[in-house]
Every structure is written in structure tokens, then in C-alpha cells.
Design brief:
The complex is a heterodimer of chains A (275) and B (642). Chain A has 9 helices and 9 strands. In chain A, the strands form 3 sheets. A 5-stranded mixed β-sheet of chain A has the order 2-1-7-4-5, covered by helices on one side. In chain A, strands 3-6 form a two-stranded antiparallel sheet. A two-stranded antiparallel sheet of chain A has the order 8-9. In chain A, helix 2 runs parallel beside helix 6 and helix 6 runs antiparallel to helix 7. Chain A is α+β, with helices and mostly antiparallel strands. Chain A folds into 2 domains: 108 residues, Roll (Ubiquitin-like (UB roll)), CATH 3.10.20; 132 residues, Alpha-helical ferredoxin (Fumarate Reductase Iron-sulfur Protein, Chain B, domain 2, Orthogonal Bundle), CATH 1.10.1060. Chain A is elongated, with a radius of gyration of 23 Å. In chain A, 31% of the residues lie in helices and 15% in strands. Chain B is an alpha+beta fold. Chain B folds into 3 domains: 321 residues, FAD/NAD(P)-binding domain; 134 residues, Alpha-Beta Complex (Flavocytochrome C3, Chain A, domain 1), CATH 3.90.700.10; 121 residues, Up-down Bundle (Methane Monooxygenase Hydroxylase, Chain G, domain 1), CATH 1.20.58.100. In chain B, 34% of the residues lie in helices and 17% in strands. Chain B is built from 16 helices and 23 strands. In chain B, strands 13, 14, 15, 16, 17, 18 and 19 form a 7-stranded antiparallel β-sheet that branches. A 5-stranded parallel β-sheet of chain B has the order 7-3-2-11-21. Chain B is globular, with a radius of gyration of 24 Å. The N terminus and C terminus of chain B are likely disordered. The chains are: A alpha+beta (275), B alpha+beta (642). At the A-B interface, strand 3, helix 1, helix 2 and helix 3 of A face helix 1, helix 4, helix 5, helix 10 and strand 19 of B. One iron/sulfur cluster binds next to helix 4 and helix 6 of chain A.
Chain lengths: 275, 642
């Protein structure tokens, strides 16, 4: 009995496919303020390949198509199954997760272009700093204000329909695709300006998620105040690019419309209450 | 480069790791009034815990009224773990479980609901009761986000300081042998710093990467645990690695198809022919479309061999059965795969209950599990072993003492281990949906112990210790970086890493033997020698992932030694540890924890065995009602029984 095959079950790698390869054309940059340059790498095809697997192979042997030895490409990844949001890149001009970009035999000989996201400062190569995206979650108080962790019984009952609505909103993995695609979301490298810049579709949708929760709604007014200010929901130009690129198919335009209405009602109420 | 943090005398706690265990611990510690510095190599929201799909176990009212109880949950967990656990912590965890679910519910986790609006439940491996709570098939992600949000709330109040993209390099232990901080490196600027703390909680997860490809995330290399071990922490039960029965192979990782697929009714089968003697054999027409194969030629081997549990036998058993079926030539198309069939469940049902995993299969395999049976094979998944930790049991052994300062502390005072990185709760085999529970339970229950420990040790605050305590550790890590970047050898760390993974997978997963483990240890010597001759392809000091990987490889080699040597010394079969040369469980000699200590002079591990507390349930034969009739594969031993 041979145990060598235990988890290497990837079947039927034919030797002929080893000669076929795929070319990755990668935009590189050694760090903030450093010049950008393009480098191409050929990676032999094998079953079950995706962009991350190609980058791993390049890291092990960083030689360009011109035979030039270089440094391994720097990139971010985590789960490798499109659930952590780490590996967002611009692939063939479209923002997406690189781990779920599967490369099969039919793509032999093709070239794939890979660039870092453009709305965030590049750390190095394909790795960018998305701190602003997390800061936006703080801005809209994207949490349920529980009393504490002591045993205080269960949460509120919820209908399956309401659960379904919240669940999909709650699958947002802070990947930033919606922000990369949004014409209203401009790059802003100065943290001091983040809180006046457009929060983005993901945060608007999170505000909706927590306003929908019975206990989360305790902070509703504070969230709507934040969304009424500069960089709030009124900054959205309704281009609807965001919803088209969200890998989790979150109904972002629904969320934006819901928050738009809520902000309007909130401000009318505030006006009449003389606040 | 050598800067120092924390110079006032407010006590601080460092939590390393922002998965479920680290986040739950942070919430608990912060809530009790201590500030927390939270370290993670990735933004905490992207921690590996987001991968968990299936659910989280707890006794609930529906199950209770059918005869289930917290005690049953406890008993199942111990039986599932082949009795290798210390029982008081398991008792406490299972009795706390309903509270954990309630708390997560209050935090807003969108658990699936029944029509009345109650939390829905599903069946999971190793239990005959529905006691698994779930949020679609992305339960871990949803639990993580709820805790991440609570931590963000504390962060907004200035009570948590996050150090994301920082890598833990070692614990700092003072001249009294007490942990007083950590050395860590900013993975962007590559700055190395010493941080003072009055307690350090390791919550750094598992070590799948030691086996090359696994179901784990890329950060799960075990290096943080190995660094504690190399600096004096004991490691427990390292040889107990869970191989999950149902994963899909890929070039970069093995993607899990959650046990919930079987819990919700998925069936495992292979195409086969039933012989005259009632035994099954390989089917001659291997390449058929599975949808065309008649019922009479489908061998539902788990259902047939385990009529009571069927497809939801525990993982160690399902994995060995699948492995044996493939070794007997009955794998799909003669290869290393079996079918996991969901097609009979209907698209609507699948999308409502299992969407997350259905999508993974669609995306990565390009087929629709609602139409075609999935092709799956076992993959390395979880580490039952981990940093050795202690606890205070109640006098009657029924649980742990709440708030005891030694709750899940390692043998180094002040250094704690929570979550997958410790060795408690799961024994020789973890039951599905118990890991999320143990991680969150550790954070909540043992977090209080950390707080009490810090309060009790007020006379020696980290902030008041002389700088010299911290400088040595800092200098040593700086020197290691210098050494790695200056190295001019000919070996490539990535290739060594790949060979390590292949060897570990071949020698120390589903089936092991003394001679094979010895061979692997010899191989490890060779890899270690080659590791001493590596050079980096990137020697710069800005976001150098090459350096970080190469450094971790050294730690992975140390951990591999623990896993292999523990497996060699444990001359029995128990749970996930199955040896062809010792096929039976041996309680007389091995109802014991394997304890590994690092021997600095040889760089290898020293193994001893230590008694476990089994005072609540007596070990019994572990058969899961296996029938011996008819099954061709039954000639091979599967569940090791006493
Ligand atoms: C695919 C999959 C599905 C699963 N499904 C289930 C399920 O349905 N139910 C269940 O109960 N269990 C499940 N499990 C198991 C469970 O997910 C894990 O055991 C659990 O999430 C581990 O959590 P943790 O907090 O201990 O560690 P992790 O979530 O792994 O977090 C580790 C943290 O430590 C940090 N870290 C690591 N090393 C360093 C370092 N050197 N320096 C700084 N930071 C570091 C990481 O950045 C991360 O923040 C599953 C596991 C996998 C792989
Ligand atoms: S709809 Fe609004 S948020 Fe979405 S892309 Fe357009 S402008 Fe941006
Ligand atoms: S809303 Fe969608 S695209 Fe935007 S961050 Fe969340 S998951 Fe990504
Ligand atoms: S690596 Fe997690 S989404 Fe791609």
C-alpha cells in the first residue's frame, strides 16, 4: 500500500500538458514612491491551477520570460477559497479575487494581466493597504452594542426571510471590489481625510445590516448621522458598478437606496424636532 | 530599529492571533478593563477561522427533549476523541456551549432559522442528535465577523490596539521564567520590536502548511507555536492530525467540502459490483458518467458498514474507509476519489443550507453539485495537538474552576494558548463543529483567568522590568534576519518546504508505521541540513515575504520533528493516529498525553508521556456500531478498538 498519494489526489496530470503554459504579465513596484514596471512569467499548466498557485510557483523560481532572475512577486492571500477577501487584484482589467481565478487547459498560451488595486496605496507589487476600508466600518458603527459577554439569554427571534436578508449582507468580506469599481470612490492616502471621503458601498450596506438587527438598531441614528455627513450616502452617484463586481452578490444598490431613504427620513425628523 | 513600547505601569495583555480564539479572548479581557495589543499577520477579519463552513455544536431545547444533554455532548466528544482528552475541560466546554450560542446570537450572527424564528439545527459527525447551529455554509465567517465587530467597537474606544501585518517571532521570558512580552516584526517596514506585556495569549491556530497542501489558509504554518516550543513551551499530542474525509484537490490547496454536506443528507459512494459472496469489488467500467450508474452498482460503503451512523461517522473513521476503498481499487475511475452525492437533495434545499460550499465546488471544479456528484478525497485539516496547557479542575472533576489564573496556561507562566493552537478538548480525533466551540470557549472562559492572573501579579509589572530583559530577545531576532538575508547557499526554501509537505503527508497522515516514520525522520535530518544552506531570492528590507517564509520554514521543520517523533513513540492506534504495526488501542501504555520538549543541543524533540484525567467517563470500545458483515473492505482494520 502506498501512502504517497494521500492528499495529492489531483488526478491525471498528463505529461503532454506539462509543456503547455500560461503567461502572467504582472505590474510590479518595489514600494511607495518607487517606479512601476511590467514583468512577464510563464507557468506550466497543471490541473487545479489558479492565479495564487501561479504566484507561488513564480516565488519558488522568480525568472521572467526574458530569462532575467528577479525578486518574488509580493501579494496578499489567505483562505484561497474566496471567503477572506485578502487576494483582491485587477485581473485582465477587472477587479476580483485572484484565488478564484481558475486556469484550465483551454487557456494554454494565453496571457493574463495582473495589477494591484488602484484605489489604495501600493505596499509592494500586488499588495495594497486597505486600512481605509476597515476604518469605514468604524465610521458607521458596524456592530451590535451588546451589554457584555455574560449570560443574558438568547438574541431576538428572527423569521427565515429576515435572516436571509441579513445573511447575504453579512457575507461581505471587506475585499474592496465594490470600491475599486466605484467612480465616486477616489483614492485618498491621507488618513486624516478618510472620514470626510466617500465611505463606499460596502459600509453603506453594513450600516443597513446593523440597522436591520433589533439590538443593532439602537445605534441607527448615529449611523444615519454619519451617512448624512460629507462622504455619506449622498456621495453615491448611482453608477451601480459596485453591485456588478461584488463577488458575494450582495445587493449593494438595494442597500444604498435603503440608506438613502433612511437618511432622508432621519433628516426630516431631525428638522422637525429642531435638532 | 530597537524601539520599545509600553512604559507606564498600566498592565497590558498581548493577544497573538485574531481568529475566533484571539478575538473572543480580546473581547473578554477588554471587557474586564485591561487594554489589549492584538497581533496578527493578516487583518484579523481575514483570519483562517473564516473558512469554517459547517457549524458549531451545543445542546439545545429540541435535542434536549429528545434525550440529548450537555452531558451527552461531553460524552460524545470524549468518545469521538478516543478518550485521550482531559475530561474536566471538555465537561466545562460542553456545558458552556449553549451560552456561547446565545451570546453569538445576541451579537447578531445570522444563524439559519426555522419557520417560527428559532435557530435551526443540523446533524453533524459523531452524533445522532441535531445539535449543530449554523449560518448557511459559512458559519466560521459569520462567527468571526460578529467577534471582529465587537473588537472594532473596543478599538474605536481605544481599548484595543491592533498590530495587523505584524508577525510574532518569539515570547520574551524573564529571569524568573515568566513571560513578559513578545518580539514581533512589521511585515511591511520589516521593523522588529520588543513589546512588553503582563500576559501573552497565543491564539495562532493550526499548522496545516507543515503538510504542504491542506484545507487551511496560507498563514496556518504552525510557526508561532513552534517558536514558543523552541523557547521552552511544551507541545502536546503533536502526532494527532485530523485528515478530513471530504476535500477537493487543487494546485494550491485542498478545498474542504464540509461535513454538513453529509449532515444534510449527502451520501458517499463508489461505483462497484457486488459479488456472489455479498462483498463488493471494483467496477470494470470505470469511466461512466455517475448519473448513469444504477443504484444496484453504487456501493454506499459508509452506510453499509456503519448502519447506525452511516455517512456521519467521525472523521478519522470516514477517512480511513475512503482511503481503504481507494486502495482496494474501488476509487472513482480507479483513482483516489469517491463520490459525495447531493443530487437527490434538490437545488432549493442545497442553496438554502449549503450555498457556501456549493459555490466553492462550482467555482473551483466547474461542475454543479446539484446536478453531478462531487468527487472528493481526504485532506489534512486540523491539529488536535498543540501547545501543552494546564487548567484547574473542580473537586468533583465536573468542569474547570471559573477564573482560575492557570486556565490554559502553558508551562511558561504568563504565556497562554487558546483555540486550535492548544492541545485540549479534542483528544485523538475532533468531532466536527466542536472546534469553533472550543476556540470561542477558550477566549471567553479562560480570558477571565488571564485577567485574574494579571491582577494577581501586580508586584512585577512588565513595564517596570529593566530594558535588558527585552534586549536579548530582540537582538537575537535581528541577528536571525541578518543571517538569513546574508546567506549565500544554494538551496531554495520553497523547494525544501514542498518536499517537507510531501514527506509529512506520505509518512504521517492516514496510515503510519514505525519504519515509515523512521524514514521520515531521516529525511527530516536531510532537509534540516539543506535548510542550513538556503539563500533568499529577496534580501531587501521592505515587505519581504521571502524572508518571512524562509524563517517560518525553520520552525515548521522543528514542528515536523514533534509530529513524527510523537507518532513513532506512540506504539498504538487511537483516533486519527493509525499504525499498521500497532493496530489496536493500548490504554495500559498509551492512555496518555504525548509531551514534546525541545532539546536545544540537538534541535530535536524529547518525548515523554503524561497521564490524562479520565475520572468522569471510563474508556470503552470505540466501534460506532460497525458491522463486520458483507463488506469487502472490512478485512482492513478501521476503528482502532480496545
Ligand atoms: C476549511 C475548514 C472548515 C472548518 N469548518 C469547521 C466547522 O464547520 N466547525 C468547526 O467547529 N470547526 C471547523 N474548522 C476548524 C476551525 O475553523 C479552526 O479550528 C478554527 O477556526 C481555529 O481558530 P483559531 O482562532 O484557533 O485560529 P485561526 O482562525 O487560524 O487564527 C489564527 C490567527 O493567528 C494569527 N497568526 C498566526 N501566526 C501568527 C504569527 N506568527 N504572528 C502573528 N499572528 C499570527 C493569524 O493571522 C490569525 O489571526 C474548519 C477548518 C477548516 C480548515
Ligand atoms: S452605485 Fe454608488 S457606490 Fe455603487 S459604484 Fe455607483 S457610485 Fe459607487
Ligand atoms: S460589498 Fe462585496 S465587493 Fe464590496 S467589500 Fe463587500 S464583498 Fe467585497
Ligand atoms: S485568498 Fe481569501 S479570498 Fe482569495
Amino acid at each position: 500500500m502506498t501512502t504517497a498519494t494521500t492528499t495529492n489526489g489531483a488526478p491525471h496530470a498528463t505529461s503532454s500538458s506539462a509543456k503547455k503554459s500560461i503567461r502572467l504579465r504582472i505590474k510590479r513596484c518595489d514600494g511607495p514612491g518607487k517606479p512601476e514596471q511590467w514583468q512577464s512569467f510563464d507557468v506550466p499548466l497543471e490541473p487545479g491551477l489558479n492565479i495564487i498557485a501561479c504566484l507561488q510557483k513564480i516565488a519558488a523560481n522568480p525568472v521572467t520570460v526574458n530569462g532575467e532572475r528577479t525578486t518574488p512577486v509580493v501579494w496578499d492571500s489567505g483562505c484561497l477559497e474566496e471567503v477572506c477577501g485578502a487576494c483582491t487584484m485587477v485581473v485582465n482589467g477587472k477587479v476580483r479575487q485572484s484565488c478564484s481565478f481558475v486556469i484550465d487547459e483551454s487557456m494554454a498560451g494565453q496571457e493574463i494581466t495582473i495589477e494591484p488595486m488602484t484605489k489604495y496605496p501600493v505596499v509592494r507589487d500586488l499588495s495594497v493597504d486597505r486600512s481605509r476600508l476597515f476604518r469605514a466600518l468604524e465610521r458607521v458603527k458596524a456592530w451590535v452594542p451588546i451589554d457584555g459577554t455574560h449570560h443574558l439569554g438568547s438574541g431576538p427571534l428572527e423569521s427565515p426571510d429576515d435572516q436571509a436578508t441579513r445573511y447575504v449582507l453579512s457575507t461581505c468580506m471587506s475585499c474592496g471590489c465594490c470600491l475599486e469599481a466605484c467612480p465616486q470612490y477616489q483614492r485618498e492616502d491621507d488618513p486624516a481625510k478618510w472620514d470626510q471621503s466617500f465611505v463606499g458601498a460596502h459600509a453603506l450596506s453594513q450600516a443597513r445590516l446593523f440597522n436591520l438587527h433589533k439590538t443593532g438598531a439602537a445605534l441607527k441614528d448615529q449611523r444615519l448621522d454619519a451617512l448624512s455627513d460629507a462622504g455619506g450616502v449622498n456621495d453615491c452617484g448611482n453608477a451601480q458598478n459596485c453591485v456588478k463586481v461584488c463577488p458575494k452578490e450582495i445587493p449593494l444598490t438595494e442597500s444604498i437606496a435603503a440608506m438613502g431613504r433612511a437618511v432622508t427620513v432621519h433628516n426630516i425628523k431631525k428638522f422637525f424636532m429642531g435638532r | 530599529m530597537s524601539t520599545m513600547s509600553g512604559s507606564n505601569t498600566t498592565p497590558r495583555v498581548i493577544v497573538v492571533g485574531g481568529g475566533l480564539a484571539g478575538l473572543a479572548g480580546t473581547v473578554r479581557i477588554c471587557e474586564s478593563g485591561l487594554p489589549v495589543d492584538l497581533f496578527s499577520v493578516v487583518p484579523v477579519k481575514r483570519s483562517h477561522s473564516v473558512c469554517a463552513q459547517g457549524g458549531i455544536n451545543a445542546c439545545n431545547e429540541v435535542a434536549r427533549q429528545q434525550g440529548y444533554s450537555e452531558y451527552e455532548h461531553f460524552d460524545e466528544t470524549v468518545y469521538g476523541g478516543d478518550f485521550l482528552q482531559h475530561q474536566p475541560p471538555v465537561y466545562e466546554m460542553t456545558h458552556w456551549a449553549p451560552r456561547v450560542i446565545d451570546l453569538l446570537d445576541r451579537m447578531g450572527v445570522p444563524f439559519n432559522r426555522t419557520s417560527e424564528g428559532q435557530r435551526d439545527l443540523r446533524l453533524f459527525g459523531g452524533s445522532l442528535y441535531k445539535r449543530t447551529h449554523f449560518a448557511g455554509a459559512t458559519t466560521g465567517q459569520q462567527l468571526m465577523y460578529a467577534l471582529d465587530e465587537q473588537v472594532r467597537r473596543y478599538e474605536a474606544e481605544g481599548r484595543v490596539t491592533k498590530y495587523e501585518h505584524w508577525e510574532f517571532l518569539r515570547p520574551i521570558v524573564d529571569d524568573q521564567g515568566v513571560c513578559k512580552g513578545v518580539v514581533a516584526q512589521d511585515l511591511r517596514t520589516m521593523q522588529i520590536r520588543a513589546f512588553r506585556a503582563d500576559a501573552v495569549v497565543m491564539a495562532t491556530g493550526g499548522c496545516g502548511l507543515v503538510f504542504g497542501k491542506s484545507t487551511n489558509s496560507v498563514m496556518c504554518n504552525g510557526a508561532a507555536a513552534a517558536r514558543c516550543y523552541v523557547h521552552g513551551a511544551k507541545y502536546g499530542n503533536g502526532e494527532f492530525i485530523q485528515v478530513h474525509p471530504t476535500a477537493i484537490p487543487g494546485a494550491d490547496k485542498l478545498r474542504l467540502m464540509s461535513e454538513s454536506a453529509r449532515g444534510e443528507g449527502g451520501r458517499v459512494w463508489v461505483p462497484a459490483i457486488k459479488g456472489g459472496d455479498g462483498g463488493w469489488g471494483p467496477h470494470p467500467d470505470a469511466a461512466r458518467d455517475p448519473r448513469q450508474i444504477p443504484e444496484s452498482e453504487r456501493y454506499y460503503f459508509l452506510e453499509e458498514r456503519y448502519p447506525k451512523y452511516g455517512n456521519i461517522v467521525p472523521r478519522d473513521i470516514a477517512t480511513r474507509e475512503i482511503f481503504n476503498i481507494c486502495m482496494d481499487g474501488m476509487g472513482v475511475m480507479g483513482g483516489n476519489m469517491v463520490y459525495l452525492d447531493l443530487t437527490h437533495l434538490g437545488r432549493e434545499y442545497l442553496e438554502r443550507k449549503l450555498l457556501g460550499i456549493i459555490e466553492i465546488y462550482r467555482k473551483f471544479v466547474g461542475e454543479d453539485p446539484a446536478e453531478v456528484p462531487m468527487r472528493i478525497f481526504p485532506g489534512v485539516h486540523y491539529s488536535m495537538g498543540g501547545l501543552w496547557t494546564t487548567y484547574s479542575a473542580k473537586d468533583d472533576l465536573r468542569g474547570m474552576v471559573a477564573g482560575a489564573p492557570d486556565s490554559m496556561t502553558t508551562n511558561i507562566p504568563g504565556l497562554y494558548a487558546f483555540g486550535e493552537v492548544n492541545y485540549q478538548y479534542h483528544g485523538a480525533n475532533r468531532l466536527g463543529a466542536n472546534a469553533l466551540l472550543s476556540c470561542i470557549f477558550d477566549g471567553l472562559f479562560c480570558g477571565l483567568g488571564v485577567v485574574n492572573y494579571v491582577r494577581d501579579s501586580a508586584e512585577r509589572r512588565a513595564a517596570d522590568l529593566p530594558q535588558s530583559v527585552f534586549d536579548g530577545a530582540l537582538k537575537a531576532e535581528e541577528a536571525l534576519v541578518q543571517k538569513l538575508t546574508a546567506a549565500q547557499g544554494s538551496e531554495n526554501p520553497y523547494l525544501i518546504g514542498r518536499e517537507l509537505g510531501d514527506e509529512m503527508t506520505a509518512a504521517s497522515t492516514v496510515v503510519k508505521s514505525g519504519p515509515r516514520l523512521e524514514k521520515a525522520l531521516a529525511r527530516l535530518d536531510e532537509l534540516r541540513a539543506r535548510y542550513a544552506k538556503i539563500s533568499l531570492s529577496d534580501t531587501g528590507m521592505w515587505t519581504n515575504q521571502n524572508l518571512s517564509y524562509a524563517r517560518a520554514l525553520g520552525d515548521m521543520l522543528a514542528l515536523a520533528d514533534v509530529v513524527l517523533r510523537g507518532g513513532l513513540e506512540r506504539k498504538e492506534s487511537r483516533g486519527a493516529h493509525y499504525r499498521t504495526d500497532y493496530t489496536e488501542r493500548d490504554d495500559a501504555n498509551f492512555l496518555k498525553t504525548t509531551v514534546a520538549e525541545h532539546d536545544a543541543s540537538t534541535g530535536k524533540s524529547r518525548i515523554t508521556f503524561e497521564d490524562v484525567e479520565t475520572g468522569l467517563v471510563k474508556p470503552r470500545a470505540r466501534t460506532y456500531g460497525k458491522t463486520e458483515s458483507g463488506a469487502a473492505g472490512a478485512k482492513k482494520p478501521v476503528g482502532a478498538t480496545a
